[in-house]
Write a structure and sequence with these properties.
The protein has 210 residues and is mostly helical. The chain has one domain. Helix 1 runs antiparallel to helix 3 and helix 1 crosses helix 4.
């Protein structure tokens, strides 16, 4: 991607990550844990969710790094959850975890619907930006399901395997390094691309855009 397109996608990324973390925080609150709410995380203010590595360093590195690909990826500051406050800890822990990727999927649907409205309104720029944002939202959805901390897939793995929070925290210390290394594996990049474009194509067909 060129620098201008990359910076536009970076602004999209910040917005999508904000909704992603809002989804986690809101769901945790509704499931009985107000830890995130008390820390101001049930919010659509991007600043409260930004992570120096996942929201700033990695995405900007991808913008300026040749051959990084079409879409940016990243993550925000994990939402704090106290499982002991949840109504049904094991079930609700998984619900809270899935709320982030679920929010990205919902946003992708809404963005493709808005792209359809852009066609009806004869606004090609609106269509292009909405499709780009929808694709970015979908890759965030699938990327966050990779089972490496701090990504959501690792939280699901922790709950399913019964891993202690202490063991998870020790594993998480090296998570961002593992993520960067895993993203260099071509089959992983291919799988993310296939799931993203495949789902985007399905949504575009549903809304009559392809």
């Amino acid at each position: 991607m060129d620098i201008a397109d990359g910076l536009i996608q970076y602004l999209m990324l910040i917005g999508l990550l904000t909704f992603h973390e809002f989804g986690h925080a809101w769901t945790a609150w509704k499931c009985g844990d107000d830890t995130a709410r008390l820390q101001g995380r049930v919010s659509l203010n991007p600043v409260v969710h930004m992570d120096i590595i996942g929201t700033v360093f990695l995405p900007l590195l991808m913008i300026f790094m040749p051959g990084a690909g079409r879409f940016l990826i990243g993550w925000a500051k994990p939402v704090p959850v106290n499982p002991s406050n949840l109504n049904k800890p094991k079930r609700d822990d998984i619900l809270v975890t899935l709320a982030g990727p679920g929010m990205n999927l919902i946003l992708a649907v809404l963005l493709v619907a808005l792209a359809k409205a852009g066609i009806l309104a004869h606004s090609p720029p609106l269509v292009d930006y909405c499709i780009q944002a929808a694709g970015l939202s979908l890759i965030l959805c699938f990327f966050n399901l990779i089972p490496i901390p701090p990504l959501d897939g690792s939280q699901i793995l922790r709950v399913v395997t019964g891993m202690s929070h202490e063991a998870y925290a020790n594993f998480a210390r090296f998570g961002f390094i593992a993520i960067i290394l895993v993203l260099q594996i071509q089959p992983v990049r291919w799988a993310l691309s296939t799931m993203t474009y495949g789902t985007l194509d399905i949504l575009m067909r549903i809304f009559g855009l392809s």
